[in-house]
Structure formats: C-alpha cells, structure tokens
Write a structure and sequence with these properties.
Strand order of the largest sheet: 2-1-3-4-5-11
Radius of gyration: 25 Å
InterPro entries: HTH_LacI, LacI/GalR-like_sensor, Lambda_DNA-bd_dom_sf, Peripla_BP_I
Mean pLDDT: 87
Domain HTH lacI-type: 4-58
Number of domains: 3
Shape: elongated
Largest sheet: 6 strands, parallel
CATH superfamily of the largest domain: Response regulator
GO molecular function, one term: DNA-binding transcription factor activity
Organism: Kribbella antibiotica
Low-confidence stretches: 52-58
Number of helices: 14
Protein name: LacI family transcriptional regulator
Order of helices and strands: HHHHEHHEHEHEEHEHEHEHEHEHEE
Strand content: 15-25%
C-alpha cells in the first residue's frame, strides 16, 4: 500500500493542503473545527508526517541536547544525581514529543564538538548539567544563540536561565537544627569552592554560626565519600572536642560516619552528623543520616519545563526550589 500523502488528507477532510500543513505543524491560528476534521482524516488514513520535510518548513529539528560537563573525578561513580537528572529530563522531553541527544563534554575536543553541533542547528535547544564553577562550557554555549538552560545556578550570572535548589536555606536549616539540639562546637565539611552549591552552603553555615557568636570550623572536601572521611579525620585532629558536623553533601557525610566509627566516636551521642541531598544511601547509612532533602527529580523536570518555555516564549526566569530537613538517627 502507498503511504498516505498530505494531498490525500486534504481531499478526505475537504480542506486545502495549507490548512492540513498548519494543523500538522501545530500552528495555533487554525480554527478548532478545521483541526478536528483534519485530525479525523489523519487518523482514518493513517497519515504519518514526513519529519524531514516538516523540519525544513519549521526550521526545527525537534531534538533537545542534554549536555553533561565533566564533574570532579570519582563523583559520577558514587553520586546518583547525574543518572537521575538525565533520566528525569529525558522522560519529560519525550512526553513533550522531543527527541533527546545526550552529549558529553569533558575535554577541550568534546567541548568544541558540542559547540559546533549546536551552532550548526543540530538541536533546537539544550540542557546543561555542569557542577564546576570554572567550567568554560556555559560561556562557550551561550555564544551559539540557541535556547539553553542550566541544571544548577552558574558561577557567572546572566549567561542562561537556571533551576537550582535552595542551598543557602537548606544549610541554614541544618545548622539551626544542630544548635537547637545544644551542640556547641559545630564543624563543616565543605564541597569544592569553585562550585556554587558548595559556596552557598558554606556561606550559610558561617552566617548561622556568626549570629550565635560561635566560630567556624571548616575542612575542605570535594563532594566524594573519601574526601568526607579524610576531612573528618582532619577535623578531629584540629578540634577533638567538636560535637557536630554539617557535611555539604551526603556522600561526604557517609565518609565522615566511617571515620567517626573508627575513632570510637558515637553518633549522635558524641558527634551529630547532618548531610545534604537525601540520596538513597543516606537512609541505609549506619546510623541513618539526618540530611537536607533537595528535590533532584523535580529540579530536572523544572529545568526541562524552563527550556520548553524558553523555546515557546523566548524568555524564562531562574527558579529556586525549596529544600526540607529530614531528621533521622545521626542527628
């Protein structure tokens, strides 16, 4: 059987080919009655639009890139965030009728390849997943002129719209919880300070303690489990009397728990521990980890919606999502 044509659909519906074309391409100016007649003819004939021809008319590829920049070494293997973000964003794009192209940009060569692909119009827009504040990719991609949004606030403002969770508010809630429990010597394990999330969480920790007249006790980690263990060992050496630790993510908090066990410190009796993110491993830590829940799936979905809004309306504002204190055994 021959494939039904646009002309056949127009003949069956009793309208012009241009009317059918406007319906197929989703133009909002078509009257509802015409749209209904055309779609009935499409269903009856089993018409499938020619995607390549439609793209020539609309100047759209109907494809969105998810670009994952290179995170710190060791973080991807431990942290489920990247897979969760890609999965949630892909599902949201597919439900909107978009194809998904996953691009990795962890080297100068791959960044150049991604830039050329976007500049050539291979995709209609992109979602950037980048954690490193020194990453050159956001500035590179902003030059392409394509609609691009960032999963996470960028270190350089104004390059593109973004969606992030309330890092400052979440860290404040964590330290306030420790203070409310009567903890007096509260340390923190910070993430790498070229990342905006780590900067905001450290700033909130310091501001909250300053308001009570307490001093900051800081060790620098890199968001990995091993850095949490090493930083906790350093903190115990620097201040053996500390009685609480706020780690800037759950992986570092879990590493800190291991060091505390090895040092013979009971959690939470001797030292209370709070993390950030509420990854699945937090629930199964020993003891179960008190943490700040950041809505990672919701953040990915909201980032996708922000991009779709940018494609439709040409503008979009940054979004900050709320966090939540989840109290478990460690604090």
């Amino acid at each position: 059987m021959r494939r039904p044509t646009l002309h056949a659909v127009a003949a069956r519906a009793g309208v012009s080919k241009s009317s059918v074309s406007r319906v197929i391409n989703g133009e909002p100016t078509v009257a509802p009655a015409i749209r209904e007649i055309v779609m009935a003819a499409v269903a009856e004939l089993g018409y499938v639009p020619n995607g390549a021809a439609r793209n020539l008319v609309t100047q759209r590829t109907n494809t969105i890139a998810i670009i994952v920049s290179d995170p710190p070494a060791g973080l991807v293997s431990d942290d489920p965030m990247f897979a969760m973000v890609v999965r949630a964003a892909s599902r949201e794009l597919e439900s909107a009728g978009k194809q998904v192209s996953l691009m990795l940009a962890g080297s100068d060569e791959s960044r150049l390849r991604v830039e050329k692909s976007l500049a050539a119009g291979d995709v209609d827009g992109a979602i950037l997943v980048s954690m490193d504040g020194a990453d050159p990719l956001p500035a590179i991609l902003s030059r392409t002129g394509l609609p691009i949004v960032s999963h996470g606030r960028l270190a350089t403002p104004g390059l593109m719209p973004w969606v992030d969770n309330d890092n400052h508010g979440g860290a404040t809630a964590a330290v306030q919880h420790l203070l409310a429990q009567g903890r007096r010597r509260i340390a923190t394990i910070s993430g790498p300070l070229d990342m905006t999330a780590a900067q905001e969480r450290l700033t909130a920790y310091r501001e909250t303690l300053k308001d009570t007249g307490r001093r900051s006790i800081v060790a620098l980690g890199d968001f990995t489990r091993i850095s949490g263990a090493d930083s906790m060992r350093q903190l115990l050496e620097d201040d053996p009397d500390l009685d609480a630790v706020f780690a800037a993510n759950d992986l570092m908090a879990i590493g800190a728990l291991r060091t505390l066990r090895q040092a013979g410190r009971r959690v939470p009796d001797d030292v209370a521990v709070i993390g950030f993110d509420d990854i699945e491993a937090a629930l199964y830590a020993a003891p179960a980890l008190t943490t700040i829940r950041s809505p990672m799936t919701a953040q990915a979905v909201q980032t996708t919606q922000l991009l779709l809004n940018l494609l439709t309306h040409g503008s979009a504002d940054p979004v900050v999502l709320p966090t939540e204190l989840i109290i478990r055994e460690s604090a």
